[in-house]
Amino acid sequence: MAVAHTGAHEPGTLGSLEHLHGQRDLLLAPDGAVERWRPDAIIDTFAGGATAEKAQELGALAERIDAGHLVAVSPRSASSAWLVGVLKQQMPCQVGRIGVAKT
After folding, report:
1. Which of 35, 45, 47, 95 has a Cα-to-Cα distance from 77 of 20 to 30 A?
2. CA 77, CA 5: separation in Å to the nearest integer?
3. Running DSSP on this structure, what letter comes out for residue 24?
4. Residue 43 phi/psi, 5° resolution?
């Protein structure tokens, strides 16, 4: 398991997990850090909000690496449902979502 993030705030609670640092567009780019790591599954929290462009970048990455599963995590069930719909149109793999309730 690896965590991909900017590295601006290094969480101390992730122990020995591998970290892939960089801006989202560079992490997901062709031959970017995530593609080179080649995960079987991708979980994306869509920091800053889900957009069609972010979904397309994620879908293109998943297609290039033949990822078997995509999970979209969103605090809003409506936006995660929309996102899953966009990804399912683009991807032949399993696409799921997790709705997170605000407390």
Report:
1. 35
2. 23
3. H
4. -115, 125
Measured CA to CA, the distance from residue 74 to residue 91 in angstroms comes to: 19
Bridge partners, 21 (sequence order): 5
Domain hosting 55: range is 2-99
**Can you give the pTM of this predicted structure?**
0.70
pLDDT one digit per residue (tens) for the chain, 103 residues: 788 888 888 777 777 788 888 999 999 999 999 999 998 888 888 888 777 788 888 888 988 998 888 777 765 554 555 555 656 555 554 555 444 444 4
One-letter amino acid at 27 equals L
For 45, the token pair is 């929290």
Rounded CA gap, 67 and 73, in Å? 17
How many domains does the chain contain in total?
A: 1
81/94 Cα distance (integer angstroms):
14
